[in-house]
Design a protein that fits this description.
Largest interface: A-B, 98 and 98 residues
Protein name (chains A, B): NAD(+) diphosphatase
Cofactor (chains A, B): Mg(2+); Zn(2+)
Helix content of chain A: 10-25%
Shape of chain A: globular
GO molecular function (chains A, B): metal ion binding; NADH pyrophosphatase activity
Number of domains of chain A: 2
Distance between the termini of chain A: 16 Å
Family (chains A, B): Belongs to the Nudix hydrolase family. NudC subfamily.
InterPro entries (chains A, B): NAD-cap_RNA_hydrolase_NudC (IPR050241), NADH_PPase-like_N (IPR015375), NudC-like_C (IPR049734), NUDIX_hydrolase-like_dom_sf (IPR015797), NUDIX_hydrolase_CS (IPR020084), NUDIX_hydrolase_dom (IPR000086), Znr_NADH_PPase (IPR015376)
Oligomer: homodimer
Order of helices and strands of chain A: HHEEEHHEEEEHEHEEHEEEHEEEHH
Number of strands of chain A: 16
């Protein structure tokens, strides 16, 4: 399968003293969204209401985290008219204060996200000094009180020859669509994973156009339940809920979670070999760079050294961060680094944390050759020119590939060694 | 107040091709822990049990997130004998499977964390190929069924002339103690913020020596409650709890949360000025670099450009990551970057996201002078030589200071421009 182009963010490659010293910026797959998130407008319901109902507005629909698409290489969008039966005439007619005070956990509200404005499109949509085509995402998974309306919407999309594409789409979408998909998927998944407050256990409400969840002080559902089931206690029915610490000041629990992850190309002390590892479930001959989660109160540089030692026994000195990649399965931020071994620190020991089936040192020449003929997604065949038994590596859409390309392309000598096409 | 030394991690400064090209690694305050976390041993209860009860073991106690200390410049540790009345003879006598199956949400279990081994200390503690003095942290906040035992422990510590130091300790602890404190504080705070499962709303159980929370399928408390209060329904009392998605496969909700944050020194297109901003609540003349949270599905480089534009209207091109800093208030990973303006992109506009009271361009010479005489913590006086009206900046323990030092120290020309002392 041909690999998609990598993104080219608008300003990243402007010539500057910084770019002359450090080389071109590597923009990894899933980054490079064309949308301006105008994040400060997410609480402005007059703006959201106007953007939602503009004729130029695009809605990316998801059914159980699978996006609507023509095929796995092209997302398709719905219009406001399409989604109106599900979201109503104006879900932003009330402000957030009203929404919180009228919270009722027994009513299913379809999850809607404002993604941003595509300022390149002269759509006629304007709001004070901002303009462009608005983009939203909408979860149409049939559930709760919206079940049958959602099912009808899904059927009407399928009748147009469209489908909800399952699985990971990271090998096939063009870069800009991949970035829009990643933003929507990450936020829908976060909302779906956090219907309850981790601080107090009570149901939460989505606000800020899908980018915040709050723990309301009242729930009208408790009034309804008390009335319909009948209370066995002597207390007066009330919508008030128990106190919650997240209502005082700012709690990070109310905001989307992103898990920082380190992924690193490890170079030998003599700069001539690279450390690669493999997991048991991977295809034969397929290796990659080492990776792992950043722990609390650890710098990225320390996390790189700890993970490399734990997984391979190898001891690293200087670590330099190369580039980063959002990874929406479910919510990782991959921080790509290059680290160099301490002299004598190259001995491999897999038994500390037995996560890898194998780890080995490979010459720069062998890695370079594999980057040329042996790259592919995990479920795909290697490229043309690959000979059975040769090293296989991740595709260009993976930051591991970019890190290896950087090292074999001269990162330690000069420039950033990127392998952009 | 004298500023503490910055950390010097063991291997980071070993000479290598990477360090010759990129200069010395900047290790920021709160990183540089002397402990080996041996994270893969956290599920091994035989190891934890032996480590906990070894005579060389140190326990860092926290009361409502305030650590035990001699004074704000020196942490103090308790011994196993001190904490035994609270934690019991061996809280690791049962394995995790047993703990989960016997889960009872009505019993308060004091939160205990295994932090790691200090391998420099010849303590006599050995476990297979690992050795060193074990470090644990323990939450002694009086609450629930452990209230009076915890109060007694607190009193016995105070009777030794020790105190639980309130507030942020980031200005005064020596670097290695600051890193141990940061790890313990971040993990205790995460456990305290997440007593319930965000996926299903039910209480959760701490496992993996304080680094994981699980949603048990049974809760013995529901049996007890049903029996003592008396059930009004016809169902048989059961300890079984409703299904939860976090019990199938791996859920990130079970693991500590770390929020990636960007903080950036912004350089003008001609490389002669730096962009600084200030918040209204800061002392007069006090400025810093801009900063903000990374959003879902955004690379670090994109987050830097977005935040700078949203807060100041300035447009950035190339962004390079300089160094990182853990920040345990409550769980941030500060990713420090240096970005350069696009030509003509320097115009300041504060009205997009009105978070800053002011933003301005300052010459490199003025920043250099302020780094020399005008640095301090937010609540402190500026240093000697500072003249009223001059620029004030954050202290060396803040990554903002390191980024500004890098730029004024020649980061764009060569080396990393760090200002280590």
């Amino acid at each position: 399968m041909p690999q998609p182009q990598l993104p080219e963010p608008a300003h990243a490659q402007v010539d500057s003293m910084l770019s002359r010293k450090f080389g071109k910026e590597i923009a990894n797959y899933f980054s490079g969204s064309p949308l301006n998130r105008v994040s400060f407008l997410r609480t402005d319901h007059a703006f959201l209401s106007a953007a939602l109902r503009h004729p130029s507005t695009s809605f990316l629909l998801f059914n159980s985290l699978s996006p609507l698409a023509r095929d796995p290489t092209k997302l398709e969008y719905a219009s406001f008219k399409d989604v109106q039966p599900l979201v109503g005439d104006d879900p932003y007619s009330k402000n957030e204060e009203q929404m919180v005070s009228e919270y009722n956990s027994s009513v299913t509200v379809p999850q809607l996200l404002f993604l941003g404005l595509d300022e390149r499109e002269k759509s006629g949509f304007e709001w004070t000094i901002y303009h462009g085509s608005p983009y939203f995402a909408l979860d149409v998974t049939p559930k709760g009180t919206i079940c049958s309306t959602a099912e009808k919407l899904i059927e009407s999309m399928k009748s147009r020859g469209l489908q909800f594409v399952e699985g990971r789409m990271h090998m096939s979408l063009p870069a800009e669509q991949a970035a829009i998909y990643a933003q929507a998927r990450a936020l829908l998944d976060w909302n779906a994973r956090n219907p309850f407050c981790a601080q107090c256990g009570q149901p939460t409400l989505s606000i800020n156009a899908g980018t915040k969840r709050t723990c309301p002080p009242k729930d009208l559902a408790s009034l309804i339940n008390t009335t319909s089931i009948g209370s066995t206690t002597a207390t007066t029915p009330t919508a008030d809920r128990p106190d919650c610490a997240t209502r005082k000041g700012i709690s990070n629990l109310c905001f989307p979670r992103t898990d920082p992850t380190v992924i690193m190309a490890v170079v030998s002390a003599d700069s001539e070999r690279i450390l690669l590892g493999r997991q048991k479930r991977w295809p034969k001959y397929w290796y990659s760079t080492l990776a792992g989660f950043v722990e609390p109160a650890e710098s990225v540089e320390e996390a790189v050294r700890r993970e490399v030692w734990e997984e391979s026994g190898v001891t690293l000195g200087r670590v330099v961060i190369h580039s980063t990649q959002p990874w929406p399965y479910p919510a990782n931020l991959m921080i790509g680094a290059i680290g160099q071994c301490t002299p004598g620190g190259e001995e491999i020991l897999l038994k500390h944390d037995p996560e890898l089936e194998d780890a080995k040192w490979v010459t720069l020449a062998e890695v370079k050759e594999a980057l040329h003929v042996g790259t592919s997604g995990l479920g795909e065949e290697a490229g043309e020119g690959y000979k059975e038994g040769g090293l296989r590596l991740p595709p260009r859409t993976a930051i591991a590939n970019q890190l290896l390309s950087a090292v074999t392309g001269g990162f330690l000598e000069g420039g950033n060694g990127g392998s952009k096409m």
